Amino acid sequence: MDLAELEIFRAVALEQSVTRAARSLDRVQSNVTTRVKQLEEELGVALFLRDSKRMTLTPEGQRFLAYAEQLLALAEEARQSMRRDVPTGKLRVGSMESSAASRLPRPLARYHGKWPDVQIEIQTGTTQALIDSLLAHRLDCAVVAHPAEGTPATLDMDVLGPGLEGAFLFTEELLLVLPPGHPPVRAPQDILPRSLATFARGCTYRMCAEAWLAGGAETPRPAPNMLELASYHAILACVAAGSAVAILPRSLLALHPDATALQTVPVRTAHTFLVRRSGFITSAYEAFLQELQRG
């Protein structure tokens, strides 16, 4: 097998279609079909289940995709290591939704101005989803929040995932966000809405919210109903409607001037890191970290 075959296989796996994969790779469809069949013959297994509408991975294909991701990522890292003086190639960056909205636009603009030849791909998700993609070599680095409290220098990166290293970026102040006109809140037991508007499980801020809402009294507050939503706009809409509360970073709330009517209560701080696999280092990554740490 060669890298071109692996790239074709990965494209078909992601697109679930030879036609769409050929279009994304700028290849003719017959070439993609032939190379996939050759790879299956070489491996001696069927990598795809084929029907009239789409191609889905077999269990063997799922296992092979993990290896293909690692091999392609290592090849890209090797290519970039030959040009350590000038950032080049591709950098696949993961980020929490809040950081992508409030913290990344300015450093990304500076980065692109300095190194326009670097192709940056951005993927957003919960901290756990991003860590999973990082460990599977689908990302090169990720901006994520650490769930533990303490000083940045004392936090253990192994809590996030095995074999990860992290560079501290910034500290977020997490706020309990309440509907307009809500009575003062001194403890979780004072909260009237019984629902927490949040992202899916795996979100660090959700973990912080659940821990805070469960503590602070002899009689624990019943676990809140979870309203799992896909965006901060939807979360804030639920809070404004009085149907839920939320715990959000102050920097994100500052982007929504219409949210000034909402009440807020400081809860805790959370430290944010740029994490990578141990040993991963390219000039594109180093330049990106430098811009992020400038703020």
From TrEMBL:
Residues 1-58 form the HTH lysR-type domain. The keyword Iron-sulfur does not apply. Coiled coil: none annotated. InterPro entries: LysR_HTH_N, LysR_subst-bd, WH-like_DNA-bd_sf, WH_DNA-bd_sf. The keyword Membrane does not apply. It holds the Pfam family HTH_1. Keywords: DNA-binding, Transcription, Transcription regulation. Belongs to the LysR transcriptional regulatory family. PANTHER family: HTH-TYPE TRANSCRIPTIONAL REGULATOR, HTH-TYPE TRANSCRIPTIONAL REGULATOR GLTR. This is LysR family transcriptional regulator. It comes from Cupriavidus basilensis.
